Amino acid sequence: MLADRDVIDPAAQRLVRTIVGESSGATAEQRAERIYRWVLENVENSDDVFGLAPAMLAERNGNRTRVLRYLLDLAGLETDLVLARSFTSDSTRSELADDDTYQHLVLRMRGSDGWVWLHAGARHAPFGYLPPSIAGMDALVLDEDAERVTIGDRALERDLRTVEVDVELRRDGGARVSVVETYRGAGAVGWRGQLEEVPEGNLEQAFEAQYVANLLPGGQLERLVITGREDPAVPLVMRYDVELASLARQSGDGWVLPPLFSAQLAPQYAPLASRTTTQIIPIGLALDIRIRVEGPEGTTFASLPPEVTLTALDGASVTIGASEDQGALMVRRSYRIPRMRIPAERYDELAAFARASDEAEGAEIRVRM
C-alpha cells in the first residue's frame, strides 16, 4: 500500500535544500534535526498513513512520520519506516504480525554511529525523543525482509520531574509558597502542548484555576514565569509564587501543616481493592520533591515526617526523609516507578506499596510559632 507513495517532486527537493542549507560539514544527525524541526513546526499531523507524500508536504497536512521520511530520503539520508508495539498492547510474541499490536509508526535513520530512532507525533519533542510507551519495545521494519528489531530504550531519569518548594509560614497560619518545577522528557513535551493551547492573556488565570487550585487550594497566584517553552532541547521550568490566607490549621497550642505536593500513588496505580486481570503501568514515574518550611523567629517543629524507604516489584521505590536545618524543616521525597505489567496474583503487593507511600507522605507536621 505504500508502494509509489514517495514520488520525487522537484519542489520538495528545493525545499530540502532550503531547510538543510549549507551542510557540507554537517553530520547526518545535524541535517536530520533541521528537517525534523521543520516538519514538526509546519506539518499538521493526521492519520493519513497511506497518502501521497509530496501531496501531504504541499498541503502541510498529513502523517508527519511519512513526510519526515520523505524529506530525509530526499536529503540523502538512509531511513526505514518501522511499526512499533506499545507497552500497553498484547505482549504475546507470534510469527504473524498483528496490525492491532504494531500500531505506532516511527523511523530509524542511519546516523554517524548507528541507527537513530525518530518519532514525529509530538510537536514539541526534542530530536531523538521517543514516547515512553514504545521505547525499548519490539518492532517490525517495513522492508523486504520484514526485519524484527528492538527500538532504543529510554532511561526513566530522562523523564525526571523535580519540585522545589519554599514555604514561609506566618503566625496567623497563612503562608507564601514559592515553587520551582522542572520537567524533562515526556513531562516537558506534555506541558508544552498544553501551554500552546492557552492564550497568553489567559495564562495566569488558567494556571491558577486549573493547576494551582489543585495543589494549593485557596491559593492566589502572585507570580508565574515559565522558561523552556520554545526550545524542546532544554527542560521546561515553571516558577510561581502563591499566597495562602490559611495553610496551617490551629490545633491545641500549635499549628498543623498539611502534606504538600503529594504524589498519591494509590489512586494512580492501585485504585481497586483487587484485580483479576493484569495491571499495566505504561509510563513510569521519576519524581524528586524538596520542601523547605520556615516560620517566624522562634518557630519549632514538634513532629517530623517519618523516615521511610519502600521497595516493590521491578525496582519501584519510594524514599521519604525529613530534617531540621538552621531553624527550617527540610522534607525530601523521591519516587521511582518503572513501566510494569503486574499479574493479578501480585496486584496486592503493588497496592500495599502504593498505600504505604501515600500514608507516609500524608504525615502531618506540627509547628509551634
How would you concisely characterize the structure shown here?
Helices cover 24% and strands 33% of the residues. It is of the alpha+beta class. It has an eight-stranded mixed beta sheet with strand order 10-11-9-8-15-19-18-17.
Description:
By secondary structure, the protein is an alpha+beta fold. It folds into 2 domains: 10-152, C8orf32 fold; 157-368, Jelly Rolls (Sandwich), CATH 2.60.120. It is 24% helix and 33% strand. The protein has helices at 10-20, 28-42, 53-59, 64-74, 186-196, 203-215, 265-269, 347-361; strands spanning 44-45, 61-62, 79-85, 102-111, 114-118, 138-141, 148-150, 161-169, 175-183, 220-227, 236-244, 249-251, 254-257, 279-281, 285-294, 300-301, 308-311, 317-325, 328-337, 340-342, 365-368. The strands form 5 sheets. Strands 10-11-9-8-15-19-18-17 form an 8-stranded mixed β-sheet. The longest helix has 15 residues, at 28-42. The protein is globular. It starts with 9 loop residues before the first helix and ends with a strand. The model has no long low-confidence stretch (mean pLDDT 92).
Structural class: alpha+beta
- For the secondary structure, the number of strands is 21
Q: Strands of the largest sheet, in order across it?
A: 10-11-9-8-15-19-18-17
Instruction: Evaluate the radius of gyration.
Output: 25 Å
Mass-distribution shape: globular
CATH class of the largest domain: Mainly Beta
In helices, the fraction of residues equals 10-25%
Count of helical segments? 8
Ends distance: 73 Å
**What ranges have pLDDT less than 50 throughout 5 or more consecutive residues?**
none
CATH topology of the largest domain: Jelly Rolls
Write the CATH architecture name of the largest domain: Sandwich
In terms of quaternary structure, the protein is: single chain
Let me know the average pLDDT.
92
Number of discrete domains: 2
- The topology string of helices and strands comes to HHEHEHEEEEEEEHHEEEEHEEEEEEEHE
The share of residues in extended strands comes to: 25-35%
Q: Which sheet architecture does the biggest sheet show?
A: 8 strands, mixed
